[in-house]
Amino acid sequence: MKDTTQIQEGVRGLLPGGWSTLSNALAALLTLMAIGWALSLQRQIGLDLYPQQFFAAMLALTLALAFLTLPFKSGTDRPKAPWYDVGLALISLGAVGYIAVRYPDLVLMIFSRPPELWIPSVLIVLLTLEALRRACGWALVIIIAAFLLYALFGDLFPGRLQGRAQNWQLLAGYMAVDSNGILGLPMSVATTIVVAFIFFGVLLGVTGGTTFFTDAAMIGMGRYRGGSMKISVLASGLFGSISGSAVANVVGTGVVTIPMIKNDGYPAHKAGAIEAVASTGGQLMPPVMGAAAFLMAEFLAVPYSAIVSAALIPALLYYVSLFIQADLEAAKLGIRPVSKDQIPSGRKVLTGLHFAFAFAVLIYLLFWQRYQPERAALWAALALTITSLAIGYGGIRPSIRAVFNAFSKTGHSVVEILLISAASGFVIGVLNITGLSFNLTYLLVQVGGSSLIALLALSAIVCIVLGMGLPTLGVYVLLAALVAPALIQLGVEPIAAHLYVLYFGMMSMITPPIALAAFAAASIARAPSMATGWAAMRFGWLAYVIPVLFVFSPALIMIGTPLAIGIAILTAGLGVWLISAALAGYFSGPLSASMRIVFGAAGVLALIPSDAFAGAGYTDALGVVLGLALMLRDVYRRRQARPT
């Protein structure tokens, strides 16, 4: 059995030999500070702080830890941090710590640009970009740099893309101390919710929880191929619907599901990708939809039931596509059902019911007592620790030392996601300070005046950009105000317009370069961030397509006759199956390149609703006929291949 004193494979620990004590101390302090803030300990001791002061302190520790544990050149093995990285760590602590201490005064100096603000601010910007490069590579850094260059030279761009050029000292100060910069909402989510859930996940690893859930999954789904991935899709969809944050859901369920998926034999980046896509889809699944459903009903002045009804079919198709892809990936990779002698006994699994109790505590506090997510996670962590020390699992109890080590392991595991969250603040800050977001909205209306298709395409891009780093409710509120009115003006059904912006706003969570949900999953899976992001886009392909379909065909959002709605569901389901097979390159067996094209073409034709445009009924019928022909051909070939 897996050693329960080891952290699960999904959590990253970066400990250079001779510096492990120092780095572990910083990592443990990072975790303890997050826990203290979540429990409002600073108020209990009479310390009145701005949230940005806490975020800055967390960033200071994150940067220092990054420079002490991440080498200048990726893949380099070193016994200790070189002198220049020690220097960068000290500068990080000094510069960001200075911002944390003097924040109440410095935030008032942004526009006066005194040296006491812009000098540490420039250092923070450069240090954050360098730490980000070490953690995630050049791609993300280049994108961030492009946004910063736009902020400096936006006045040189033509037409509506022209922005307000910013003084470099002003820009640095704004990014370092303004609540729309690196100390903004993404850091708020990461330093509170994400750290708390990662801590809970680390405790699951050191107490044997990962082994328990692996055993339970083998009993429940072991006889089916791809069972672990299907469990991830189901669990993440259910939890994600209510969590209100795709990233929080990834770190909440992913610490269990991602290691299970990897243990089944899936590549690490695909394990992270499917978790990210399933968690993001939870924000689109009725009845709660990350709380957006309630606000949408208020905006549109319609009954809540109308929102749930409209969102149901697209969300179900989304998860059907994930289940199909999980099954096809398992078949393609040769992942077979587990043999009966490898499936653990039910009696053994029953000894681990205290792990389920910890999750019951989490669910009860989140959904019935309405606790803040981070506090619910910490209470669940306490319940898990007490019961595990008392009971254990499979005859093994974790040691007290292993439980204490969870603090440092948590700190190491959150470095990358904290750096990405800080970097997301650069993008959001540039959008705000330059006016680029409002320029894009105006341009949207101008383009849409002549072409609905062009408006939809441009709206999708704007939604993805504006949705970067925001929780579900924030994404929806922003896009409902800026983008949805333009769609409604061109005749799009109001519910369809609002669902459209919500879908594409949430797709920012799995769309590189700022794919926070995918990157959080990559951190747990120990997979390359960008590879996980691209894989997430592939698994979540339907979410980029179905909003366009229900704009042209309201039958997919329950607007129309029962016959039209029924036909739309059946043909869309067939289309999803065929396109998923084409993307996977597998149906009942491997598909050649030419057959993948045929499957894809048939799927596209079937997916187009019959009422989408004049003559669409013919293309829909052609897709159905072609799809059925492909299936009959497959049945015939399999019968021919059977030995007589």
The counted number of beta strands is: 0
Q: What is the alpha-carbon Rg in Å? A: 25 Å
**Relative helix content:** over 70%
Largest sheet: none
> What is the 3D shape?
globular
Give the structure's gist in a few sentences.
This protein is mainly α and 644 residues long.
Question: How would you describe this structure in keywords?
Answer:
single chain, 644 residues, mainly alpha, 73% helix, disordered N terminus
What this model shows, in words?
The protein has a domain at 570-644. It is mainly α and 644 residues long. Residues 1-17 have low confidence and may be disordered. Helix content is 73%, strand content 0%.
Secondary structure topology:
Layout: H1 20-38, H2 41-44, H3 51-69, H4 83-106, H5 115-136, H6 138-153, H7 168-177, H8 185-207, H9 209-221, H10 227-243, H11 246-264, H12 268-282, H13 292-300, H14 304-333, H15 346-350, H16 353-368, H17 373-391, H18 400-413, H19 415-434, H20 436-448, H21 452-466, H22 472-482, H23 484-489, H24 494-506, H25 516-525, H26 529-539, H27 541-552, H28 562-584, H29 593-607, H30 616-641
Helix pairs in contact: 1-3, 1-8, 1-18, 3-4, 3-19, 4-5, 5-6, 5-7, 5-19, 6-19, 8-11, 8-17, 8-18, 8-19, 9-11, 10-11, 10-12, 10-14, 11-12, 11-25, 12-14, 12-25, 12-26, 13-14, 13-22, 14-27, 14-28, 16-17, 19-25, 20-21, 21-24, 22-24, 24-27, 25-26, 28-29, 28-30, 29-30
